[in-house]
Each structure stands twice: as structure tokens, then as C-alpha cells.
């Protein structure tokens, strides 16, 4: 059995991790257009690892990086404390226990970090795996994790879409950075009671707006009240519908359909190409059904796993 060692991630490991993923992208069935799991450049790798609670690389006897592991944590809106384990093992190093070692080490760190958690709210371990990561899915299930929900990534082929009529009394305009407070109020209403979620902050929404292509970020208003949004972006890697929200008081009136068809028409007029988005697979608010009616099809599923953390 090959020897592998774990050591703390260093900033200069970022390039090695990036090269590792790039080298095995074909074998890993990496989807270069994905909105869920993109291939990060070295700066992106460094930022993700340095923001984690714990991050290591796995090296072989020659000192070459063959994998990595990380742990990050947050508290969801219902008070649940989540410790999310992530990791990767290059194909040549798989089936030698390295993935199990990385998972076990991350769980041990989570147990240590959670020792000071005195609140009565649940503390759980989390992990993710897509439908093309059979080895990781099997590892998680053998380790006692269970699927709690699934995200689906969907694609539209970019063919022309017939726009739908906007509901009476509603105006649509391009968003501005000054809409951050109104969007926070809207998001608070839309996300109310949603499980497995953490509400973004007003500052986080303001930052998102400041980085967005505002011509593709549409808000719907009644008088001065923002009641809906559709945000899209176009990059060399993908065309993406980033978010769709409709105030609960306005739902079931065709607003989401009208805004989406308007955005899809704009995107297709600017140039052909697949358009991506992701949403909850179990369709709690009918979003997946809406996207399917407009021609989106599922291209990949991403399972979210949980298990209780023993402390």
C-alpha cells in the first residue's frame, strides 16, 4: 500500500492543487460549464483553503501532492451548526484508504472545534458528492452519512424563447447597488422557513450587486417595493441564471415566468450557447418545474449529506 502523509496547507500549495485537478479533469468528468463545482485557478484555491477552518494536502513518498482535505463551518438560520468536510484524491491514489483518512481527520477536527458549542441546537457533519463521484458517495454512505437533499444543475440549449406577458401593475428595471436593502427584505421573505439555508447579509447582497452585470440583473417592482428578481451573468466559461426570487405575496401570478423569458430572450439575442442554473432537486417552491417548462434539463445532480456529530 503506498504511503501518504497529510500536512497543513501552505499558500504555495495552491498551484500544485490546481495542476492536480487540471491533470485529471477528463478522468474526473469535470464539467467546465458547471455553476456548482468549477475548476478554480491557483488564487481561487488559495482563497478557499485559507478561508477554511482546517486545510491539508496529501503527499506521497516523493513529496508530490496527490490530494487535499478541508473543513469549514457555519450556523444555519434554524441554529444548526454545520461542519462541512470536503476533499479530493487523484485517480492514481484512490482505493488505498486516503479518502477515508482525509474524512476521518476532518471529523476529528470538527469534534474538537465543536467542543465549545454549548447551545442546544444540533451540530452536524456535512459532505457533498455529485452523481459522477461514485467512490465518494460510497465512502460517505459507509461512514454513516445520509442524503438530506439534492441540488440539480440544469441547462437550456439557448434556443429562442417566446416572452410572456408581465402581470398587471408590475414594472421591471435593471438593478442598482442601492437595491441591496430592498433585496435583503425580499430574500428574507422568500427564504423564510427554508431548511438547510443561511440568509445572506445586506452587505453580502450589496457586494454581489457591485460585482454583477447589472444590465442582466432585473428587479420587479410594485410602486417602490421590490417584489422579484432575476439575476444572470455571462462569462467565457458559462452563461448563468444566478438567482430567481418572487415575493410570496406575488407568487403564482406568472411573474417568474415573465421575467425569466425576458432574460432568456436577452441572453439568446446576445449570442448562442448553453445557459445554466441550479436549484433544489426536490422542488419545494416549484422552481425546478418552472425551469423544465421553459426548456431546462438536468445535467448533473449534487447530493448533500449529513450525519450527527458525536462530541
Automatic annotation (TrEMBL):
It comes from the Bacteria. Keywords: Acyltransferase, Transferase. The keyword Transmembrane helix does not apply. Residues 4-168, 170-310 form the N-acetyltransferase domain. PANTHER family: AMINOALKYLPHOSPHONATE N-ACETYLTRANSFERASE-RELATED-RELATED. This is N-acetyltransferase domain-containing protein. It comes from Luedemannella flava. The lineage of its organism: Bacteria, Bacillati, Actinomycetota, Actinomycetes, Micromonosporales.
Amino acid at each position: 500500500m503506498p504511503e501518504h502523509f497529510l500536512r497543513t496547507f501552505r499558500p504555495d500549495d495552491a498551484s500544485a492543487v490546481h495542476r492536480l485537478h487540471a491533470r485529471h479533469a477528463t478522468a474526473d468528468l469535470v464539467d467546465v460549464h458547471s455553476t456548482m463545482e468549477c475548476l478554480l485557478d491557483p488564487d481561487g484555491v488559495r482563497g478557499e483553503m485559507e478561508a477554511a477552518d482546517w486545510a491539508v494536502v496529501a503527499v506521497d513518498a516523493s513529496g508530490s501532492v496527490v490530494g487535499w482535505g478541508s473543513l469549514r463551518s457555519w450556523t444555519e438560520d434554524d441554529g444548526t451548526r454545520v461542519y462541512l468536510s470536503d476533499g479530493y484524491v487523484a485517480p492514481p491514489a484512490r482505493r488505498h484508504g486516503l479518502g477515508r483518512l482525509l474524512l476521518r481527520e476532518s471529523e476529528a477536527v470538527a469534534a474538537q472545534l465543536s467542543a465549545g458549542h454549548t447551545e442546544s441546537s444540533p451540530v452536524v457533519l456535512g459532505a457533498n458528492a455529485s452523481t459522477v463521484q461514485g467512490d465518494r458517495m460510497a465512502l460517505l454512505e459507509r461512514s454513516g452519512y445520509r442524503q438530506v437533499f439534492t441540488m440539480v444543475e440544469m441547462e437550456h440549449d439557448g434556443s429562442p424563447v417566446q416572452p410572456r406577458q408581465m402581470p398587471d401593475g408590475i414594472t421591471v428595471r435593471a438593478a442598482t447597488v442601492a437595491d441591496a436593502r430592498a433585496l435583503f427584505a425580499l430574500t428574507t421573505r422568500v427564504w423564510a422557513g427554508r431548511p438547510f439555508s443561511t440568509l445572506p447579509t445586506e452587505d453580502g447582497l450589496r457586494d454581489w450587486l457591485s460585482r454583477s452585470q447589472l444590465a442582466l440583473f432585473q428587479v420587479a417592482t410594485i410602486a417602490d417595493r421590490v417584489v422579484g428578481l432575476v439575476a444572470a451573468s455571462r462569462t467565457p466559461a458559462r452563461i448563468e441564471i444566478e438567482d430567481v426570487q418572487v415575493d410570496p405575496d406575488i407568487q403564482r401570478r406568472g411573474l417568474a415566468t415573465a421575467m425569466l423569458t425576458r432574460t432568456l430572450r436577452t441572453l439568446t439575442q446576445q449570442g448562442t450557447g448553453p445557459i445554466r442554473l441550479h436549484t433544489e432537486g426536490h422542488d419545494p417552491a416549484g422552481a425546478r418545474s418552472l425551469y423544465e417548462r421553459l426548456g431546462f434539463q438536468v445535467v448533473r445532480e449534487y447530493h448533500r449529506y449529513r450525519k450527527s456529530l458525536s462530541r
